[in-house]
Amino acid sequence: MEVVGVEAGWPRSRPVAQRRVLSQDLIVDTALELLGKGSLDTVSMRRVAHELGTGPASLYAHVSNKEELHELMLDRLLGRLPRPEPDPGSWTEQIVEMARAQLKMLTSYPGIARVGLETIVPAGPNALAYGEAVLAVLRAGGLPDRVAVLAFDTLSLWCAAFAFELGAAKTGETGPDEIAARGKEIGAYMAARPTQFPNMLGLGHILSEATPEERFEFGLDVFLAGLVGAFQPRRNSM
Amino acid sequence: MEVVGVEAGWPRSRPVAQRRVLSQDLIVDTALELLGKGSLDTVSMRRVAHELGTGPASLYAHVSNKEELHELMLDRLLGRLPRPEPDPGSWTEQIVEMARAQLKMLTSYPGIARVGLETIVPAGPNALAYGEAVLAVLRAGGLPDRVAVLAFDTLSLWCAAFAFELGAAKTGETGPDEIAARGKEIGAYMAARPTQFPNMLGLGHILSEATPEERFEFGLDVFLAGLVGAFQPRRNSM
DNA sequence: CGGCATAACGAACACCGTTCGCGAAGGAGA
DNA sequence: TCTCCTTCGCGAACGGTGTTCGTTATGCCG
């Protein structure tokens, strides 16, 4: 005996919309989700659209192009960064903490650092607010205005660059095995020419043994030391 | 009276080759030429092949893939950088000059900086030789070994990052007019919210007025000042 | 209800990197 | 010189990309 399903729908005051409703926020959210799981290359318009159950052309009613999508994504993420209240007594520690938070965010979304590097003038509300926060901390340290601004510039670039490199290592074509193999090849190449590589042969291992955090913080610490040594007003307590 | 052309060819000891002969050097040269005139995006396998009067598939007998082509290009360029004889008395000046030369090279070929950032382990002969040269200068300054190696790391990244940003500004989608327009929008946005942007509003112009060279050298100088202040042995002459 | 504006969408365009299979070319050996 | 083998050069094709154009569907307003 066959049972035929009964498709009786309840009467509705309004027919259900047949089209999917999109929004810029939804698109950015979806793209960020994809980015968190993959890389910038996996965030194609087609993939984002597919995740949303539609086609890529539908996205263009909400974002002008892929580049704008990237910038929206970056701004969203910048909005998540902590913005401390500036403290003149511990401004360098604050800068270090902010840089760490930035690096962590940038590396959690592989490829977003590249967007940061490629975005000539970050103009989103969060980017501006975050820039204001960094600048406020730098100025709290008593640095001359021009120095504070250029330091902000340098620190931003340092974080983005470092994250870019880490991101490339994480998502690029060169896996850990190949990196190790390359290291061996390089070692053998140089060992066969010891007079050409007196420094690299003895010290090359230092770099491969350093952790990303060590490398990042070295650059940061030395830069901040230079800032303090050259530009920060003297304090009687020191 | 019709004159029929006579196609009498001279006898040859060997028939003329009908195929174009390619080589890795030729492909790299061609790609670099395209890069010097455009950007990394314009250096497609199809374009390189077209310049060589063939099809993209022909390139794969000489380069494994596009990534390898990129690395070969980078190594070629690194081979053009000057490698000074280390001088303990002026090592910081030497580092600055090397950084300037690197930046100049990287910005002459828009996009190659990105290759530098994306190449996890630069393994070409020129990359190794150049690294050796930088490291030798840093060590000539009397820096501890680990510091010299990490400084080399930092300086490389700084140059590549800065060049990347300059390259993006030069070849990206955001032209000078749009950059200026954005600056205006940002200014207006912040001016409408003065209590939110007390620092940016007064100082934002400093950044837009600074030249790329000023920005680059600021980061470099401060970093070197930090290196010298923290790690270089004291000299009686100072 | 009809008109209008806008969002959603499919088809198509022009590009991309790469692989596969075939033919051409060159070198080595008999 | 001829034959065999290897490698290079190449076209076709695959699976992908961002974007535009024209059409349809939807919602809002008068």
Give an overview of the whole structure.
The structure is a homodimer of 238-residue chains. Chain A has 238 residues and is an all-alpha fold. The first copy, chain A, has two domains: 40 residues, Arc Repressor Mutant, subunit A (Orthogonal Bundle); 154 residues, Orthogonal Bundle (Tetracycline Repressor, domain 2). The first copy, chain A, is 63% helix and 0% strand. Chain A contains ten helices and no strands. At the A-B interface, helix 5, helix 6, helix 7, helix 8 and helix 9 of A face helix 5, helix 6, helix 7, helix 8 and helix 9 of B.
Distance between the termini of chain A: 94 Å
Oligomer: homodimer
* H-E order of chain A: HHHHHHHHHH
CATH secondary-structure class of the largest domain in chain A: Mainly Alpha
What global shape of chain A is seen? flat
CATH architecture of the largest domain in chain A: Orthogonal Bundle
CATH superfamily of the largest domain in chain A: Tetracycline Repressor, domain 2
Question: What is the number of domains of chain A?
Answer: 2
- Kindly state the number of beta strands of chain A: 0
Radius of gyration of chain A: 25 Å
* CATH fold description of the largest domain in chain A: Tetracycline Repressor, domain 2
Residue runs with pLDDT of under 50 for 5 or more positions of chain A: 1-16
| Percent helix of chain A | 55-70%
Question: What is the residue-averaged pLDDT of chain A?
Answer: 88
Greatest interface by residues involved: A-B, 67 and 67 residues
SSE-based structural type of chain A: mainly alpha
